[in-house]
Amino acid sequence: MRTRTIGIAIGIATALLATATAFxxxxxxxxxxxxxxxxxxxQAIACIECHKQQTAGIFADWTMxxxxxxxxxxxxxHQAQPGDLDISRDHEQYYSRGDMPYGEKRYFIPIxxxxxxxxxxxxxPDEVKQYAKSKHANTIEIxxxxxxxxxxxxxxxxxxxxxxxxxxxxxLKVTDGxxxxxxxxxxxxxxxxxxxSLGSCTSCHTRHRFSVMEARKPETCGxxxxxxxxxxxxxxxxxxxxxxxQAFKQEYNWNSAPGAWTPGIDYRAPTCASCHMSxxxxxxxxxxxxxxxxxxxxxxxxxxxQDFKPFPAQTDWKVERDKMKKICLQCHGKAWVEDFYxxxxxxxxxxxEVYFKPAKKMLDDLYAKGLLDKTKFFDEALEVEFYELWHxxxxxxxxxxxxxxxxxxxxxxxxxxxxxxxxxxxxxxHLVDTNTKAYRYPDFPNATxxxxxxxxxxxxxx
Amino acid sequence: MRTRTIGIAIGIATALLATATAFxxxxxxxxxxxxxxxxxxxQAIACIECHKQQTAGIFADWTMxxxxxxxxxxxxxHQAQPGDLDISRDHEQYYSRGDMPYGEKRYFIPIxxxxxxxxxxxxxPDEVKQYAKSKHANTIEIxxxxxxxxxxxxxxxxxxxxxxxxxxxxxLKVTDGxxxxxxxxxxxxxxxxxxxSLGSCTSCHTRHRFSVMEARKPETCGxxxxxxxxxxxxxxxxxxxxxxxQAFKQEYNWNSAPGAWTPGIDYRAPTCASCHMSxxxxxxxxxxxxxxxxxxxxxxxxxxxQDFKPFPAQTDWKVERDKMKKICLQCHGKAWVEDFYxxxxxxxxxxxEVYFKPAKKMLDDLYAKGLLDKTKFFDEALEVEFYELWHxxxxxxxxxxxxxxxxxxxxxxxxxxxxxxxxxxxxxxHLVDTNTKAYRYPDFPNATxxxxxxxxxxxxxx
Amino acid sequence: MRTRTIGIAIGIATALLATATAFxxxxxxxxxxxxxxxxxxxQAIACIECHKQQTAGIFADWTMxxxxxxxxxxxxxHQAQPGDLDISRDHEQYYSRGDMPYGEKRYFIPIxxxxxxxxxxxxxPDEVKQYAKSKHANTIEIxxxxxxxxxxxxxxxxxxxxxxxxxxxxxLKVTDGxxxxxxxxxxxxxxxxxxxSLGSCTSCHTRHRFSVMEARKPETCGxxxxxxxxxxxxxxxxxxxxxxxQAFKQEYNWNSAPGAWTPGIDYRAPTCASCHMSxxxxxxxxxxxxxxxxxxxxxxxxxxxQDFKPFPAQTDWKVERDKMKKICLQCHGKAWVEDFYxxxxxxxxxxxEVYFKPAKKMLDDLYAKGLLDKTKFFDEALEVEFYELWHxxxxxxxxxxxxxxxxxxxxxxxxxxxxxxxxxxxxxxHLVDTNTKAYRYPDFPNATxxxxxxxxxxxxxx
Lengths: 462, 462, 462
Description:
The structure is a homotrimer.
Chain A: H1 4-26, H2 42-54, H3 56-63, H4 66-69, H5 74-78, H6 89-93, H7 117-120, H8 125-132, H9 139-146, H10 148-151, H11 157-162, H12 164-168, E1 174-175, E2 178-179, H13 212-216, H14 218-222, H15 232-238, H16 240-248, H17 272-276, H18 317-328, H19 334-368, H20 381-402, H21 406-434, H22 455-461
Antiparallel strand pairs in A: 1-2
């Protein structure tokens, strides 16, 4: 960009300011330690030299990473920590081959396959601390507190593994001293690790490049935030933000330092990360995506994050909304921002009052009258209709309005809500009027999944 | 591109030819005025210096624009014009702060927030003249003449604002001397401005960069031309054109001069703009997208643009088809082009005769027999079915055939038409055979929208 | 890429190894002939000089191609071959214009419009040989052996031409010495050419650039592999592979030599071509996409490719799976690969046993009981439901699991399968319980297509 000099100046100023504010806000002045030592132990050289041959791609990825620039070697992340349960036995065997280069015992260091946020926190403590309290990190707990598919065992374990757990994460287990293949490999954002930490930083910063650029691109979020029930990537791509991103992304300065990525200077229109995670102006970078959010647009009844029962946010929605407004104000005027929130709040209000509550009341009535059966969810057509009203089109309507995507707000959103609502109410009234019990699917397919809540999460909580 | 030298030569030749033809065709030789003066008034310097600090992004955007290169300052667009109703009062207050840099009264110039096509026309008269007669500019009028959602008040004002009006535009209003926040901000293509002009050039040339490159990229059109009812961007991306664009776009010369963007030289496969707007060969650039079109594929019954009642084109479809053929012929042979139009015409004919007309006849019969109720549209299932037949899958079928996207022509198009037609006819016949009135949804949700046709448009017309 | 030197070294090594292996495996040592002669006949100069003026885009495309670098001229591909039926008469006429540059008879060479794989095989024999036995090349035969739309004449010829045949290809015909416009132009992958060869290399390597880069990009495959029934491009874009492609594609070395495109070195994450076609490690490049495949995930009942009755693969699935595993192992560890196949095989098994077989049994029962009519397919609602169960959501479930796209495996896949299965079984049981014949759509629209199997394919076979 032509304005790069200004950009850097402002960027540095922002970073300094951000640092200063962070210290003030969190009240822990600290003497920084940051020096790059260029030597490395012979065991690390052994890793590198052997993997340069054996897995040239991983080596090439690493050479391009900031880790390599800072002399962070394989061992800095993979060396087993005290108590690690997933130390690789296969890997150890290589060191009994004295006839091979680096095959001697003296090069051996025990290695853990799964690198966890706890491992990453040795160098990135703030990111991990923020992430740990996010909905991302705790998504398995949230899912089990809410989801009828899991709690009712309505889908199979393999449907969960190739579907749900791919994004939400697995609970890692060790069987016979090896990572249990029903739980590993997995890089879901809420993975429960053997060391008790939550998540996988490589969900967004794929190994072994660990790029900030990648995590700043919307497609990265779009791995999981897509489809009929939370189409944030489709919504983003449709919005003015997404349009400008598509037209100008090749000019974006993707590698600006963390906390110093500046709207208008480093990029024209924001990506997901810009608004939800990146530092901008006086708002600091966060890895807790629950921040800056003022409505739970994914919940059946839209509530404030602090009132979201399965995982109440530990902050006040007004504080978070003010943060987000500061982000908006980096590019937009005050009138624009206020008007946006009027529209969004109105969309939420209309969804809650006009669509959700009357439908919910009707559903409850049907259960109360015994015309719908509570034993299983999804085995009666009206349960599916009700679910799709809030979980599919109801989310699309709210999220479309939230991110200014007219096609999603209307055609995939409220337009579908109207028709779903009408069909739901017609059938429901028919049952009431004729006092008929709803038809139950007698052979619901593949409802074989385990219904045990993961003790690794729920026993700890008790 | 390696062939850049040839490209430039041909480009210049094309531009000269285009100019010559334009003069001949439009019969108004004119002495050109075009000189760039480098000075600027101190008020303009004040704008720039203050906004460089306050809104660094806007400043950065402007520095990258052709406007900045041509010494077009903030004032050249934002200075209030005689009679402007939206002069910013907030902005004026800054000039009572003599203690601030540029805060003195002498830097004050009244500013209008909303820059309109009329403002743009001071430098870009031809573009604005063309645009003013397009369906884009007049879309609010068209919408109110056609749309049952608006005319029946079947959705809420907020559903319209976050949905319809986002693309189609609002009718700007001033309340208490300020732009009414229910109408502003908005950058819809048909925005009715306070000065009577129609549209917002920043819909496609986003501020403050105003890039021709952006408007040439298909994603820009895809902001509005997407989704179940007019998925032009999905259709384009699927087509051979879109495939080649995706593979080679990084080689495209996006910044070729307006009118000189040459297929084969500056780019391999066309984008939306290439065929519908850009000058190509002897066909001149137009900002009236109604040009080059020979069927109204969005209408219920497909008609010629001159026969489209809500907004009849002021041209003959054969003339426009010949223009489009000349565009095709820039890359394709004559046989190819003729064959394409045979397929497209056949698709239109079959849609009209086999799907639309029999379904329309059945709908009319149901109304005539009193089995469907005419009071409201959308509150009986068959009305929704009929609507989606022409408005959703019927458009996809026609548009898919039109832009050579087989998946849309068939799977999202005629395939869906067949099933929709069958279900519609089954249910309709059932009503007729049993002489039963259709069920009416008694509590159609959120049907609260204003049904007043905008007097700014419709009173003017009378 | 920083590691380019290593990359080239490894690339060359790979290529040499690949060559060596190929010779060993196929047992035909050959003396290579490869020399580039720089002269060209005056007829070729005439083509180039005239088309440089007349079709500047085609000329520009060619100048950028490897063909031009290797001195391959228009004539090398377009010169009519003995027996060609599609020699252009229009073109010949230009050579009677001695007053035009190159208009003299001595520049005349007979030209065939349609360049076929047989033509391409003069220089690319291995690619054409591989392609000829692929499902791509033989897709028209497969389609006619399977498809109820074609065999029942349930759609119109134009619906087929703008839909099916666009991807699958036409059977080229000559009428009055010209290519029949109902069959040409077409670049479908299974086009039956007048010389008996199958396909069109320009489906993926668009003319006149013929780029290996283009064919390596996923969007190229996505021209046809998209939509409700085989959404491989959507699935890919959602996967971790697609995410990394989107974030890093600008760093990819797209122009690495055929057979030498090396994962980790030339690119981070694979594209469609990387896994299904490109040479990688010891696995050789193939243009037969049936290779490396171990399940027919597009078939109603998932079977091994060798057991796919309409076109049984001439190889063993275990051999092919081992090939694919070797591809995976270029980037992934053994445990990762084995675990992937456990999930995929389980998804296939559950689809077959839990969803497809019970639904198929019910369909057969309905036919046996006379409650469904076998005369036509698609004219009874349950036939459509059954079709979509396997052809739409059942494919999405299997393909989503196959390419690790959780949203497709679950929300667009098994989630939809469950609801479809339930609705199908409810309606089917209702017919059985009430002994009612299913309603038949009496006026199935546009069921006018020709039902004659192409004799060019089926007579040859007998």
